Amino acid sequence: MEVVVGEPTRVQTLAEKNPTQVPPEYIQAPENRPQIKIPTTEDDTSSTVPVIDLFGFDPDHWGDVRRELGQACKEWGAFQVTNHGVPIHLLHRMRSVGLSFFKDSPMSHKLSYACPPGSAASEGYGSRMLVSTSNDTVLDWRDYFDHHTLPLSRRNPSRWPDFPPNYREVVVEYSDCMKALAQKLLAFMSESLGLPSSCIQDAVGDFYQNITVSYYPPCPQPELTLGLQSHSDMGAITLLIQDDVDGLQVLKDGEWVMVQPLSDAIVVILADQTEIITNGNYRSAQHRAIANANKARLSVATFHDPAKTMKISPASALVTESFPPRYCQIVYGEYVSSWYTKGPEGKRNIDALML
Ligand code: OGA
Ligand code: NI
Predict the structure, then answer these.
(1) Ligand nearest 271 Cα, by number?
(2) Which terminal residue of the chain has fewer beta carbons within 10 Å of its beta carbon, N or C?
(3) How far is Cα 250 from Cα 244, in angstroms, rounded to an integer?
(4) Would the CB of 287 count as within 6 Å of ligand 1?
């Protein structure tokens, strides 16, 4: 293991030199390279990530919504929601301040927020996901800004960009809206398994929430590299918005399926702790982001995780003689440390817990 020290290369800086090739550290092994295919109208619509209308949580629709959510959680572990109650202009403002930080502020300003090199999951401007990398680790074609937003004791807006001027205020408002939506979704998911509505939330405890704005610059050879390598998210539930550029893909039955960019929708990605708590009834989604030759892409992912001290195990109501526990109990902080040292490599981390 080689510990990375010193400032990492910023992908945006590389891309601004208009290279004709990606540097070798960004070239994926042939089996991990994306197959860039243009969707055709004949494509089977059953392989489209589900889009679920939440009808603003109108009680008249609860039954149908629960059923649709339950099915999407079982079959996909990822779906999009519309009429989710989060003001659409807030989604636009969040994307707009995020994009402005990356595109309109000078590198010197961005670097004043640089994540300390060599520390895991720290807040700020970063380009490398892992702390220590072996020599053969391939880098992602992405820069990001990570914000610690909840609980309030971790929220310190003075560590976030102050450009554009409304940046911090938008992140605060966005954080609160995402928390409320995540809670409502977990309640529906619990009910769709026949559990009391608070079951999953009680198992997760108070959310630790991080917001990561990812910026994927245009890439000269998108067929050789990845914006973000294949992984499942570690925590409980991720809510993601993207701009109008394709890039996010979900693995379904061995095929990578593009999540269609819908500007008013929110992408819901089930993460590993929800898979454990639901005893595998609901699966965390393996996903990745591909790069794009012509356009920069922006996404905003909001992660909702348990506290590091939480013990996570399958909900007792879902463990019976005929359905024994499928995962061993973990302490969430230990799961996170092992993820950051070993790397995501698909779903290897949660697969290691299977009984
Ligand atoms: C992530 C993630 C996908 C994207 O940050 O965990 O999966 O489209 N992002 O940026
Ligand atoms: Ni992810």
Answers:
(1) 2
(2) C
(3) 17
(4) yes
